[in-house]
Amino acid sequence: MNIVCLDMEGVLVPEIWIAFAEASGIPQLRRTTRDEPDYDKLMRYRLEILKEHGLGLPEIQATIAKIDPLPGAKAFLDELRTLTQVIILSDTFEEFAKPLMEKLGWPTIFCNSLEVAESGEITGYRMRCEKSKLTTVKALQSIGYETIASGDSFNDLGMIQASKAGFLFKSTEAIKADHPELPAYEEFGDLLAAIRAAL
Questions:
Q1: DSSP secondary structure string for all residues of 43-86
Q2: I need a surface site. Which of 59, 89, 109, 170 has the fewest CB within 10 A?
Q3: Looking at the annotation, which residues are catalytic?
Q4: What number is the average pLDDT over the span 145-161?
Q5: Three-point CA angle 63, 66, 70, nearest 5°
Q6: How far apart are CA 166 and CA 178, in angstroms?
């Protein structure tokens, strides 16, 4: 019994924070988990910048509404879901993910949630659990699933390495160089073929 665990941002959809950095003209918000392995540190940094500029959830959601999945992502996901169960494991937040899940045909996503004031200011965030991607993969394995995982960033490495098969997808040159043991792909067709072979 297999289940495929996919990262969302950078794999199926563009990076939300990079899109918002461009929309808001705040280059510091371009930092992602590709740059900062410590997610808690990264989020505290982002929230400080948002507060400094008086920006909140409504402004970010307005940017997300204009984001489309990466070319080929929906077809890839649709095809993959005919072969096996798929869960998207993301460190994003329900408040960000919903419009993107709609565009992807409502796949299952496990992610986190934001704490938002009535003014729209993001005052904090609640992580589903510690090291959520790795923890989830281990939990799935504990109930009889074999996992196959793919992602692009530092925070995906745990779930990729803990799975029976794991792949980097559209990752950075630095991460690929640090992990030559992990097959790395750039095209959805190649990733689909690799997952199919691992099933």
A1: HHHHHHHHHHHT--HHHHHHHHTT--PPTTHHHHHHHHHHHSEE
A2: 59
A3: 7, 9
A4: 96
A5: 115
A6: 15
